[in-house]
Design brief:
The chain is of the alpha+beta class. It is 23% helix and 42% strand. The strands form two sheets. Strands 1-7-6-5-2-8 form a six-stranded antiparallel beta sheet, with helices on both faces. The longest helix has 13 residues. The model has no long low-confidence stretch (mean pLDDT 91).
Length: 100
């Protein structure tokens, strides 16, 4: 498992529910995609059946499950290249749904 300490990130919400994660991501993102579990944002694998991933300016906002600690909403800062990579990947995958 990849360690978060190597990333420029901010914890927006911790020890929360799936509903609270999705609400915060929807409220703070310009575009939001619902992706199946197993997708990666940078090298961070998203767990669960589906996860919302949002883009706000040059930041990525997403739900992250940290084993033994629960659900978090993280913001990776200044990720313009990763946002473009993910947008292109999401356009090609029929299992990804744009929800905002």
């Amino acid at each position: 498992m990849v360690c978060l300490s190597g990333y420029n990130y901010e914890v927006l919400l911790k020890n929360t529910t799936l509903e609270e994660c999705e609400k915060l991501i929807m409220e703070n993102s310009e575009d939001v995609y619902l992706v199946p579990g197993g997708y990666k944002v940078r090298d961070l694998m998203l767990m669960g059946t589906v996860s919302p991933v949002g883009f706000s300016g040059s930041d990525i906002i997403f739900q992250f499950t940290k084993p033994c600690f629960g659900l978090f909403v993280l913001k990776l800062k200044n990720e313009t290249e990763e946002i473009e990579r993910l947008r292109n990947q999401y356009k090609m995958d029929k299992n990804v749904k744009k929800i905002k």
